[in-house]
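Students often ask what a holo structure prediction actually looks like on paper. The answer is less mysterious than it sounds. You provide the chain, you provide the ligand, and the output is a string of discrete structure tokens encoding the 3D arrangement of the protein together with CU-O-CU linkage.
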Amino acid sequence: MEAYCSIAKSFSSFHVLGLLLLLFANAAAAAKTHYHDFVVQATPVKRLCKTHNAITVNGQFPGPTLEVNNGDTLVVNVVNRARYNVTIHWHGIRQMRTGWADGPEFVTQCPIRPGGSYTYRFTIEGQEGTLWWHAHSSWLRATVYGALIIRPREGSSYPFTKPKRQTPILLGEWWDANPVDVVREAMRTGAAPNISDAYTINGQPGDLYNCSSKDTVIVPVDSGETNLLRVINSALNQELFFTVAKHKLTVVAADASYMKPFTTSVIMLGPGQTTDVLITADQSPARYYIAARAYASAQGAPFDNTTTTAILEYKSAPCPAKGPSLPPVQPSLPAYNDTATASAFTTSLRSPSKAEVPIDIDENLFITVGLGLNPCPPKSRSRNCQGPNGTRFTASMNNVSFVLPSNYSLLQSHQQGIPGVFTTDFPAAPPVKFDYTGNVSRSLWTPVRGTRLYKLKYGSKVQIVLQGTSIFTAENHPIHLHGYDFYIIAEGFGNFDPKKDTSKFNLIDPPMRNTASVPVRGWAVIRFVADNPGVWLMHCHLDVHITWGLAMAFLVENGFGELQSISPPPADLPVC
Ligand code: C2O
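The corresponding structure tokens follow.
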């Protein structure tokens, strides 16, 4: 029975490209420059039975996949034809000395206004694996995102069996509404925003949702072959478990850093994180569900409890259209609140070999991350105070709720010496010590607002203890640092205790990532060397938490000479 049922709805043309690359591999190993045009525009997109004018790039949802080799340069001209301000962030790209191309609005640039444009130019240096790009303005990244795939340098190979095919798997989150309206409403009321109506795989919710099954994404496979899935959590506000029914996943990379391979049946990704897994088609020819649903760590908080699916389809499987076909094999996913499975996964990640972990630490920071509640300002109306008990939700790091400037970007004001835009007094430790993960006194629930940066000397070796709090509610926070990869040398539950927890530090082979999952009611410790001058945002990658101020920024000073200094701003850098 030879039946290939599905049309290439997925990204199956990758292996053809792979062959072409092989043919040309001997020709030249020189780095290339890739030029792209991104037109940000409103596009009708029909999901869950209804059409919305979604903001997209080039009319595609998800947006175009960018594929480069390590060492290549990307030049992306972004034209804004939408009615919102927009910027694009290249999540996880180091942007060595090219902070102007990083993208977070009011941090490294002012937004691209409707009708405006900006060209992002940067080189990929020493990174291989899967990253992604997304809008970094309001909640536009709900629909403005895509994969950024970095293959090994031309002529070099993967540190694992070369996969037959490669498929990006972008996990997304869909609102049956305009996501910008959803966040604006939450900002007005002070309440938590509406939860999403679906999760998606490569833009499609899948068989378990209304009006969706005919568009379910099909990932084709031949019996016996080993393929690479590049899984990206591009959801706005939800950590996700991901699995493929009956198949083992061999983890080989995360956040564009290779990992010591290990095998698991389920992976967990916080928003922002990526995981590359090898999957061998070693089951009987059939159709198997690829599935993702929430890892919801906050107790009692509402969340979208739906499940998105795609189908792994063996080419020799009986065709659904002709003859008897069985429904796809059901996946088994952990319970929504299965923190044990989530941390079993994150603590299994290891660098493939001995890592160069910074040892003599120059800057030792302790940063609390969590929510808060603001009392209602005097004379405000109750409709603007619909958070718990008539308050408004907020969030902070070390009790500072981060406020973005509006007249200059932080990087521009730093570079041009424009005063009054920010201060450099972000505290290296919380202003008061308390039982962070215990029953926190109500008097500690209200942070202060500020645009406070923390200054780092070029080359300084930094350690940060990221300590979750249980203010209002404890939950897992995916903390992302722009412009850097860092080692996660330990994680645990409860309050970090330097007396006993330093003995758990892995200084041999810790994983290197750009986004750390700080365990619910727990902590994580990261280390990096401040070798990239500029202004770099560090924030929770749950968009609702950035909205509430769960962020801060580092100002990394220039070192000596041109090679240790940020390059001059591009001429077309948008101004405010
Ligand atoms: Cu992927 Cu500041 O973001």
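Confidence is low (pLDDT under 50) at residues 6-28.
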